Amino acid sequence: MVTLVVCKWAVGYLKACRSECLFPGPPTLPILGNALSFLGATEYDIMDRFLKLWKNSSQVIQIRVLHILVLVVSDPDDIEKVLRGSDTQDKAPHFYRFFQNIFRYGLVVLNGVQWKAHRKATTPAFHKELLDRYQELFNEEAAGFLQRVTTGTPSLVGPNSELFAMRSFARTALDVQVDGNVDYAIPLITDILHLFPRTFSKRTAQPLFWSDTLFGMTKLGRETEAALDKVKQFGLEFIEKKRRDLGEGGGAEQRAEQRPTLIDILLESHGKAALTDDEMMDQLVSFFGAAIETLDTSFGWLFKILSLRHDVQDRVLQEVRDVVGTQDLHPDHLARLEYTERVIKEQLRLLPPFPFLARSNTRQATVFNGKHVPKDTSFLINIYGAHRDPRHWQEPLKFDPDRFLAGRSEGRHQYAYLPFSLGPRNCLGARYAMIAMKTLLATVLPKYRVDPVDDGLTDPASFPLQLGISARMPGGVRVVFTPRET
């Protein structure tokens, strides 16, 4: 067994070495490559370590960690080649295999035929017509956020926004009604999502724990497995209960006027799109993770930026008052909150929740930019870099929502902006996230002014980043919610 592992590593190492100097990059050491640059890295400093190697280069740069060859792709033209290329559609095994601890075989890690089948089964849950039916639900959860706000003193945004995101997704994925199922599921999912950033950073940066067996022997590995077992037990029992309820309820036709959840849609999938209970469970956990990380992280950045930029906050507030007034939020209102959407888009540009994607040519060697790239090379898509590229963004470090006005967006490279990825494997949840973010801002700002705290952080482009699943503020975002005079 050990011999096979060593041989496999040696083959990968020789391939990587033969490809050195194809693209520019930082100097490498024999055997180690650039591994020392990441030795002992944690979620708190791994982003800074990467930025020191990248050096704001728009060129493809090459990094090697032991036998793993990574091409960092930052130029939108090159990003488009990777994300649309038929040879580079698979998720990079070295990066995404660690997601399998949590997401098993969710869409985030699947490739090939399996990915296509699961994508087909889950896509109907994110159609606009269905999401619009959930507006009342989002309104209810936004009202819950208001009730939990602490006023007049610096407070963490995260616990409240995380609960908003979790409750919203639990009700759209599991059960529309607020009942024991939703309340029981939330702490289980919370445990997993709080464990995962530690798991991912530990395994990515420490080659000793690339082995599933060795990681499983650690305290963190055992905690992760125990938390997953609880989620799976609840999930499979819930799926079986849902299946019985659907059978008793007369099927899809009778529920045409109701609001089917993600699990309802998966249970009603047929033919090649039909999923097993375990596969449904993997998709639920995968979507839970993606939705909650995206929303919770983005809400933190949004409230932090609005606390610093009262000019932007005042424009959002005025737009909400003009469009919504005293009415309950409706999908038609959201479509008319154009400046609010530009503010969200600008936050996603300057501080994308997921600053990197990774693809690989796992099936065969390929030619990229005229150079032979060996099989199993990882292509690290540098979203963070593309979003700050001065060739595509005027004053890229400035927070300027109006850069997304139609007249200023004309001619901009499509792949210069990809907070939800692009190409065949783009994120299904982009519309869902925009609805949730607009709803919360339009609910909170008429009730509370968001004021800054004295933490010395005043420039969004220079905010420190903690990279776990998503890129967050270390220690969490703090602001002051001040009640508005009525």
In short:
With 486 residues, this protein is α+β, with helices and mostly antiparallel strands. The chain is 50% helix and 9% strand.
List unreliable stretches of 5+ residues.
Answer: none
Helical content, roughly? 40-55%
Mean pLDDT: 88
Radius of gyration computed on alpha carbons:
23 Å
Strand proportion? 5-15%
User: What distance separates the N and C termini?
Assistant: 71 Å
Main β-sheet, spatial strand arrangement: 1-2-8-5-3
The 3D shape can be described as globular
Number of strands: 12
The DSSP helix count reads: 20
Largest sheet: 5 strands, mixed
**Secondary structural class:** alpha+beta
Organism: Megalurothrips usitatus
Family: Belongs to the cytochrome P450 family.
GO molecular function: aromatase activity; heme binding; iron ion binding
Protein name: aromatase
Can you give keywords for this protein?
single chain; 486 residues; 20 helices; five-stranded mixed β-sheet; globular; alpha+beta; metal-binding; three-stranded antiparallel β-sheet; heme binding
Question: Would you kindly provide a written description of the structure presented here, covering whatever features stand out?
Answer:
By secondary structure, the protein is of the alpha+beta class. It has helices spanning 2-18, 46-54, 76-84, 93-96, 100-103, 112-122, 128-132, 135-148, 158-173, 180-205, 212-216, 219-249, 262-267, 277-308, 310-323, 331-336, 338-350, 383-386, 406-409, 430-444; strands at residues 61-65, 68-73, 90-91, 155-156, 356-360, 366-368, 371-373, 378-382, 448-451, 466-467, 471-472, 478-483. The termini are far apart. The relative contact order is 0.16.
